[in-house]
Write a structure and sequence with these properties.
Shape: elongated
Largest sheet: none
Mean pLDDT: 92
Radius of gyration: 21 Å
Number of strands: 0
Structural class: mainly alpha
Low-confidence stretches: 1-5
Order of helices and strands: HHHHHHHHHH
Helix content: over 70%
Length: about 210
């Protein structure tokens, strides 16, 4: 049974309790990647986390509640890939290197756990709440990049739209690679094209249409 709607959820405060909850989240992450979310039950999660099923329900209402924490863990791991690139100030002449660094970080974030990526993206298509986690992650990432570029005195005009288009280019490239549509050599060549295209896109002056 995966749903126990009447259970009262505890917020762990002591170190031992926090460790138990974290163990449940990590075990769930690994099982969801290995077996899939729908093929995993809470008894298996409890066993993998070395806790009782009752302990699981001390901290989570149901399996979907666990999934939200697992997605949070996955996204925190994604965000850590961009921390270095986004934590420093840049000059305008650094744009090419910044784009290359961010592109490499996005490829790494897609390939660090392909099974996790595939499972969670599939779930996001079916579950609007899970999809919102990824929409919020993308929005945070683009907002940070936008702020970094504005601090380097790039024009803010259409910058959000430029970044969204650039993100789409990189996402497509990453998906082509992890789905083995392109190989390593094609990825390497595509990265060169993508970096030049995105650099030009960000530097491009766009005139607003006058209606």
């Amino acid at each position: 049974v995966n749903v126990m709607p009447t259970n009262e959820i505890r917020i762990p405060k002591q170190k031992r309790s926090i460790e138990k909850k974290d163990a449940i989240i990590v075990a769930s992450y690994e099982l969801f990647c290995e077996r899939g979310y729908y093929k995993t039950n809470t008894a298996e999660i409890a066993k993998a986390a070395n806790v009782s099923t009752g302990i699981v329900y001390n901290y989570f209402h149901d399996k979907h509640d666990i999934l939200k924490e697992v997605i949070g863990l996955y996204i925190s791991r994604l965000e850590s890939e961009f921390r270095t690139a986004l934590s420093r100030q840049i000059q305008k002449e650094d744009l090419h290197n910044l784009v290359k660094e961010l592109l490499d970080a996005l490829i790494t974030s897609h390939t660090m756990n392909v099974s996790a990526h595939n499972e969670f993206m599939a779930l996001a298509l079916l579950d609007p709440e899970i999809q919102n986690y990824f929409v919020a992650f993308e929005a945070r990432l683009l907002a940070q990049i936008k702020e970094l570029l504005i601090s380097a005195e790039f024009s803010s005009c259409f910058l959000e739209e430029k970044l969204r288009i650039a993100f789409g280019i990189i996402e497509q490239l990453c998906h082509d690679y992890i789905q083995q549509i392109i190989d390593e050599a094609q990825l390497s060549r595509s990265k060169v094209v993508a970096v030049q295209a995105i650099t030009s896109l960000i530097e491009m002056d766009v005139e607003p249409e006058i209606k």
